[in-house]
Amino acid sequence: MEVNRREFLKVSGSGVIGLSLLQLGVDVRPVRAYAKALKIEGTKEIVSVCPFCSVSCHIIAHVRGGKLISTEGDPDYPINQGALCAKGASMLSMTRNENRLKKPMYRAPGSAKWEEKTWEWTFEQIASRVKKVRDKDLIQKDASGRTVNRLESLFFIGTSHADNEECAAAHQMVRGLGIVHVDHQART
Amino acid sequence: MTNHWVDLKNADAFLIMGSNAAEHHPISFKWVLQAKEKGAVVIHVDPKFSRTSARSSFHVPLRSGTDIAFLGGMIKYIIEKEKYFKDYVVEYTNAAFLVNKDFDFKDGLFSGYDPQTRKYDAKTWSFEMDEAGLPKKDKSLQDPRCVFQLLKKHYERYNLDNVSAITGVSQEDLLKVYESYSATGVPIKAGTVMYALGWTQHTVGVQNIRAACMVQLLLGNMGIAGGGVNALRGEPNVQGSTDHALLYANIPGYLGAPIDEWQTLADYNKANTPATKDPKSANWWQNKPKYLASLLKGWYGEKATADNDLCYGLVPKCAKGVDYSYMFLFDRMYQGKIRGGFIFGLNPMNTLANTHKARAAMDKLDWVVVSELHHSETTDNWRRPGVNPKNMKTEYFLLPSAHRIEKEGTVTNSSRLVLWHHKAIEPAGQAKTFGFMLVGLMNAIRDKYIKNGGTLPEAITWQDWPKTYVAEDWTKRLNGIFTKDTKVGDKEYKKGQLVPTFGALAADGSTTSLCWVYTGCFTEEDGNKTKRRDPKQTPMQEKIGLNPNWAWCWPVNRRIIYNRASVDPTGKPWNPDKAVIAWEDGKWVGDVPDGPWPPMASENGKYPFIMQTHGFGALFGPGRLDGPFPEHYEPVETPVTSHPFSPQLSSPAYKFVSSEMDKLTKPGDPAYPIVLTTYNLTEHWCGGGETRNVPNLLETEPQLYVEMSPELANEKGIKNGDPVIVENVRGKVEAIAMVTVRIRPFKVQGKTVHLVGMPFAFGWSTPKCGDSTNRLTPSVADPNTTIFELKACLVNVKKAGKLTEIA
Amino acid sequence: MPKAFLIDTSRCTACRGCQIACKEWNELPANATKQRGSHQNPPDLNPHNFKLVRFNEHLEGATVRWNFFPDQCRHCLEPPCYHEGAKLVDDAIIHDQETGAVVYTDKTKKISADGFEIIRDSCPYDIPRRNPKTGQIVKCTMCYERVVRGMLPACVKACPTGTMNFGDREKMLDLAQQRLAAVRKEYPKALLADADDVNVIYLLIDEPQNYHKHSVAQKDQDIDRKLFLARLGRPLRRGVEALLNL
Fold first, then answer.
1. Which of the residues B100, B376, C198, C219 could staple to C74 if both were Cys, CB 3.0 to 4.6 A apart?
2. Which residue in chain A has the smallest CA separation from B409?
3. What does the pLDDT read at residue C119?
4. Which residue of B has its CA nearest to C20?
5. Which of A76, A96, A116 is the last residue of a domain?
6. Chains A & C: contacts with CB separation below 8 Å
7. Is the same domain home to A140 and A179?
8. Are A80 and A11 in a shared domain?
9. Between the CA of residue B708 and those of B137, B198, B797, what are the distances in Å?
10. Which of B51, B695, B742 is closest, CB to CB, to C13?
11. Do B51 and C59 touch (CB under 8 A)?
């Protein structure tokens, strides 16, 4: 059935508003064509936290089939109550952006390019370098004969982008290795 | 933050200083504006007029680096005009304490200074004790050796003439701020201080914040709703990453990192556990041995036993007095003393001071592991402009990291609220969580030590370390478990069960916790409390917006810390309309009080400042390295050659490194007469490595600019939008001129001083957007924190022809 | 009942949450922009930005005034663009009486470049833009598909400070009057821009020209009303400017 615009207005002007507009069951073609579907309809809502300033605004991720469809502020979080600033509002394109790194890579000395590597290869290479340096450089006793067990020639810096659980793991790892040059964004 | 975001709505006055809250914590203004509409005065004191200033009641431009002069003037005003909250000052601060007779302050220096080492011996910065071992007090505050009188004397010099002459703030504006803010020095008014890196990034950074704490203590603004000293933490989880101490000088939970002098656990505990003879002082840090024992037990599990000092000996010991922070790390790297390392989620090639040196230092590494979301100035330092990759010997391993929305775990917001975020989607490509990388890497290293042995393998192989990374298992590790069957009160806990609260942590190895302040976040009784989304609150809690059932807050879900100071000594709220806690029918209601004890005046009562050894708010603060009272010192690079307060021009104790790349401009150098301050903007995040890769954000703020007054632009023949070069002894930076009335020339000691401001979010890895502003900033730092002085240095500006970094 | 926005600029911090939320919801691509000595970027509305926060600063004595103007389609009560559109292509522009939304459909692609100029010229606020690749004329949609489902427009949802408000027109008018009375104590120049003619009502606290050239249709309310009605179907924007320049 074709309904022209004037007729549409007559229909919709009869006190039917909001969702019911879409339930009219008639082809109100131009408007329906425009508002045909809400992209987040039927998506799963998952609560995340904005990755920027420490207000930690809550963000609802709308996901369908493992794909991020849209993001919006979480109206229930008492602090942001659904609101977001420019950065928080850009979560969708931030996650999707083309510039993301997607594979482990290696750049050899003197090389002008990155080479893609596997995670296994990468861990193995790093682990052998760490062990080599640590075995050689770990200071077990200082000049006064005191036990110090510190490794000054390696460092670990970062990161406030990590979760608490990851920070705890990082700290435990770092002190286990004996590393003392430790720092991150809390300082700058 | 001592308070929290929603609590901003309870303030009657805001002192936003050292912060551009509306731009850097935009949602904070949801709450600031609510208070403003109810009549609160919002004061923004900052070198430039920003989006924060636009929505404040008024803005006061201040020459960068003169905050202590400004606040010292306020302290003088509060004391002289008797604006302080007398009962609070007498009962809850150390104003009445008598100070060591040998403590002195002369010519800008406190007693005990050694010009050779540039360090203080702080032994005279102490209190006189009576026979019982308690600090001597004069509650009349009249004794000339009491803290209050010394404070009054110290700030006598900070009169309006002196303060105005050095800060560039008119006397009228000074009085406007002092009057309106000090009006909160009454029981029923609250003033809040919001600060950020604008205070910390100075060679007097810690003392800037000390000065604010003193103002707040004098006005009785600590512990109350709408009050507090609120550090607006910058980074996504910088509160959490600080709690877990990704810092050389600390181990998790604000415990000092072991040093060479403390060879045994007993040595450590003896040196680090404060004692008091005052039964009314909670002296919370007396519990420190329990927290360290639980941490060691968490790290080394079954291998940590009483016989081996809970493996304390395996933990690295820093050399006493040696600073292992960024500034010294990159200096040692530059000297070729560092072989390799890890840079996770950080862009130091853009964000450290003097990045020319940092970039050159990184070239000296044998190898480096970098984990990031995108290519950045750090991940690709080997191919930065001006170098030939062929000559770059360093091996780079680049690990692609997952975005927040692609993983689960907790982050801690600025107000200590620990929040669970769920995983929405799989990480892009083969990107992985930091947790996957850390656990996987450590296992690869462990396997080698297990198989082949090596130096001190047990430090690694004895660790209680999982096979794979599961976030919630680590949340439990943070909280801690019982390592044997234990009774807490009437309740029995089995070995392996979660510890209910840090009050149950023990020094004997019977508990674990990787960060004691997080104990209580995940319990047998309530599960993972960081996932709570319950809006329920009592009417009393709702009135001040406490939201106690939303997620979980450290410590012990206390939303406003030092809240025992919000009530009088009998437990009655100073301001019943905005009560935080109240003692009713023999129990506390409202927020979780700072300890369970009854009100201070009762027999078993305690003083409110429970983290202080004596239990009192520290107007006199002997714990810092550069003095017990904040004193005005100029930035290391300053346009003036003298100031009105003392002959000591700059901080006598600031830290620095020396190399041919660490040049400094001498004070008042006519070649570089302009003050540069650096900052950021809403649309970019810190070094910009993340946000420059988000096209919608880059669209809004695409390129590096320098904001300057029309007066300076006119002097230099620069028009709005012109290409310019900003330069000093360390480097040259190309930028686009933004000529704006939002920056005003300052009148300092009768002369015009110009200031320019630049963001540091732009870097070469985003084509043609400009490169690191920090090529201009100096490697000089606060003596307490070693935070760089990024907010004030000297430059000159000139119009440029064609730019190469920006197009 | 028609819907309306109240945009309370006395509360705006220019965080640009609204500007970005609009782009993200509509999945509009980014423009390549340059720094030109202003924080306002992109410099103007364009086919990829239906919403733009405009920045305008000046000194008032010694006081800095920095005004922020989140610009967007006003969804006029009697939209001149709709009347122009109707003459060119049927249903290219829809004026929905229920919500008050003025919605440009993809049928606007059928409107020629010259036709677009007529439509743009008819707008007192210089809002419509044409995508040169597709030929489609675009602007703020009022997030029509959200609004009919009882959701807030994306920009309103994102706003942290209460600058962006949305609801039944009568309620918004009440709120506008309340807010106007409140801010006039501090800002005597405060006004509601063209409240009788548009569904996107701006509360301004400074002179309209200190926000943006087209922040209001024109200064004189009487002429404004007459022009709106008399000039329907004629190039209004130029007409108004000519009149004001006299």
1. C198
2. A163
3. 97
4. B696
5. A96
6. 96
7. yes
8. yes
9. 52, 18, 10
10. B51
11. no
Is pLDDT of A35 > 70?
Answer: no
Cut 0.90: pTM above it: yes
Task: List residues in chain C touching B: CB distance below 8 A.
Answer: 11-17, 19-20, 23-24, 29-39, 41-42, 57-59, 64, 66, 68, 160-162, 182
Q: How confident is the model at residue A34 (pLDDT cuts 50, 70, 90)?
A: low
3-state secondary structure C99-130: CCCEEECHHHHHCCHHHHHHHHHHCCCCCCEE
Tell me how close the Cα of C47 comes to any Cα of chain B, in angstroms.
14
A12 plus A59 within the same structural domain: yes
pLDDT tens sequence across B569-594: 999 999 999 999 999 999 999 999 99
Gap from A70 CA to chain C (nearest CA, Å): 7
Judging contacts by C-beta atoms under 8 Å, the chain C residues touching residue A96 are none
CB contact, 8 Å: A141 with chain B?
Answer: no
pLDDT band at A17 (very low <50, low <70, confident <90, very high): very low
Please tell me which of the candidates B233, B340, B398 has its beta carbon nearest to residue A101: B398
Identify whether the C-beta of residue B501 lies closer than 8 Å to the C-beta of residue B525: no
Q: For position A95, what pLDDT does the model report? A: 92
Write down which residue in A96, A124, A139 finishes a domain. A96
Distance from CA of C162 to the nearest CA of B (A): 8
DSSP class per residue in B144-194:
TTBHHHHHHHHGGG--HHHHHHHH---HHHHHHHHHHHHTT-STT--EEEE
The number of distinct structural domains making up chain A is: 2
- The mean per-residue pLDDT over the stretch A42-56 comes to 96
Amino acid present at B622: P
A15: contact with C, CB 8 A cutoff: no
Q: Are residues A122 and A41 in the same domain?
A: no
Residues A47 and A65 in one domain: yes
CATH of the domain at A12: 3.30.200.210
Answer whether the bond into residue B555 is a cis peptide, omega within 30°: yes
pLDDT at residue A7, rounded to an integer: 28
* A83 and A110 assigned to the same domain: no
Q: What is the pLDDT of residue A31?
A: 57
What does R_g of chain C's alpha carbons equal in angstroms?
Answer: 17
Give me the domain span that covers residue A109: 105-184
Chains that touch A (3 or more CB pairs under 8 A): B, C
- Are residues C23 and B51, on separate chains, in Cβ contact within 8 Å? no
pLDDT at B769: 98
Q: Is the ipTM of this complex over 0.90?
A: yes
Cβ-contact B75, B47 below 8 angstroms: no
Residues of chain B with pLDDT under 70: none
**Residues in chain C where the model's pLDDT stays below 70:** 218-246
Runs of H (alpha helix) within B509-614: 539-544
Supply the pLDDT for residue C244: 41
Q: Is B737 on the interface with C (CB under 8 A)?
A: yes
